[in-house]
Amino acid sequence: MFFVLQLVETMDFVPTKFFKKLESTDDLWEVRVQLGNNIFRFLGFFDGYELIILNHAFTKKAQKTPSNEIKIAEQRKKDYFSRR
């Protein structure tokens, strides 16, 4: 897990296998981490150019990211920016 987060932090270009923008969202990004047979997704967003806020995580079992997981991350993003 720390390997993937370090990639996101230090590389100018991170392979989409590990980090990609989610289509049809309010600018949410997905960090993908595999530990053994489990695949975890961390959803988040940028605050400025250098700060990534990872605000939701779940175990992904299907190819498509579940809409309820996206809604949770989008609501938390709204909450974050409303408190700044």
UniProtKB/TrEMBL annotation:
Top-level lineage group: Bacteria
Organism: Desulfoprunum benzoelyticum
InterPro entries (UniProt xref): HigB-like
Pfam family, one: Gp49
UniProt protein name: Phage-related protein
